[in-house]
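Input chain follows. Return structure tokens only.
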Amino acid sequence: MPALEVNHVSHSYGKRKALDDVSFVVETGSFSVLLGLNGAGKSTLFSLITRLYATRHGTIRIFGHDVTRDSGEALRRLGVVFQARTLDPDLSVLQNITYHAALHGIGPHEAKRRSEDVLAQVSLADRMADRVRNLSGGQMRRVEIARALLHRPPILLLDEPTVGLDVKARADIVAHVRGLVENQGIGVLWTTHLIDEIAMTDDVIILHKGVVLANGPAAEIIATSGAADMRLAFAKLTGTELD
């Protein structure tokens, strides 16, 4: 069963159509990239999947559960890292994680055990007592990933998770999430406008002005477009000039 199915989804803001008949699948245990420039519709789609916006046209299913008709079952299988920072900077790393555990109905003893486990997964077990404001940007992102994993979701959504990070921090975050796919079989939907975050083994959905222009393995998209690499394939498909 696919981790995520988006079927014929459209969304408008007044007369402006942000998404137009968008369809794709994220398989269990895959690293899928939703690639598009700013304004392509990535954040709108992210908001529909996470139920921040209501889906009025089309369907979205998480492990077979419709996010509209069966939202509780759908969303409890979903871990989310939003583009905007959502940690409390005045609380410790551990306090941020355990507070989130309470929202999922996880008791104090189990919350502490799980918190230690997920922080170890992102190599931050030694920083759990530190205030969040004393962490680097990359470390804060890793705390948010740990928090998203706390309730053990089988699929993880990340909206532009490396924005504002330096080159090394970006590479570390990408490597951590790819490790989750490889070691735990988690399905990942990674939204980005940064082409260099894509690997040839990734499934890629190219979204441009609300429309899916290409959907498939990165190597296949490159070959079909007749381009030499993903950067040139993206430019050719979208008709944009890249620096």
